[in-house]
Design goal:
The chain has 184 residues and is of the alpha+beta class. The chain contains 7 helices and 5 strands; from the N terminus they run ααβααβαββαβα. 42% of the residues lie in helices and 14% in strands. α2 runs antiparallel to α5 and α3 runs antiparallel to α6. The protein is globular, with a radius of gyration of 17 Å. The chain has one domain: NADH Oxidase, CATH 3.40.109.
Length: 184
């Protein structure tokens, strides 16, 4: 398989749940936001807005929402919400269905992935905090004073990792790739 810098960044990116207190520089944040801006979107609709959150109280409240999601999903308290408020900055990826009624979620997901990869390439880390249910999304809407109608695709806490994440594993291509049809 051919190796290149992009594949190295993709393979090296990990979700990091705890961050140290080193601030994220304005230059690094701008590069991360720029990577999100250049994500693909249907007919170049660019239905996203990126809300940058540095306010400690807002980050704490957002972390509490994530804790409740993790608890409901796993049946136990997860570290994701606890470390969330420690991140120096959080980026909310928000999309407007009116700009692209059919593909706004996918466009926002592509923007979030671009930002996660850029963060990793800069020596930073993040994790993808999704809001799979309406209740948590409404809470985030209130915390960030978002207008009605927009959707929150993800919250990305960003910062220097407080630990070294384990290497990742993936299923071999032979198990997940089929040619022409899905049948084996």
């Amino acid at each position: 398989m051919k190796e290149n810098e992009v594949l190295k960044v993709i393979r090296g990116r990990r979700s990091v749940l705890r961050f140290d207190t080193t601030p994220v520089s304005d230059g690094d944040l701008e590069a991360i936001l720029e990577a999100g801006r250049w994500a693909p979107s249907f007919a170049n609709a660019q239905p996203w807005t990126f809300v940058v959150v540095r306010d400690e109280e807002k980050k704490r409240k957002l972390g509490q929402v994530i804790e409740r999601i993790a608890f409901a999903h796993r049946g136990q308290m997860a570290l994701s919400g606890k470390g969330f408020g420690d991140a120096p900055v959080v980026v909310a990826v928000v999309v407007d269905p009116l700009k692209d009624p059919q593909h706004h979620i996918e466009a926002g997901a592509a923007a979030a992935q671009n930002m996660a990869l850029m963060a990793h390439s800069l020596g930073l880390a993040c994790f993808w905090a999704g809001l799979a249910r309406k209740g948590p999304e409404e809470e985030v809407r209130k915390i960030l004073r978002l207008p009605r109608g927009v959707r929150v695709v993800a919250l990305l806490p960003l910062g220097r990792p407080a630990y070294t994440p384990r290497d990742g594993e993936r299923a071999p291509l032979s198990e997940i790739v089929r040619y022409e049809v899905l049948e084996k």
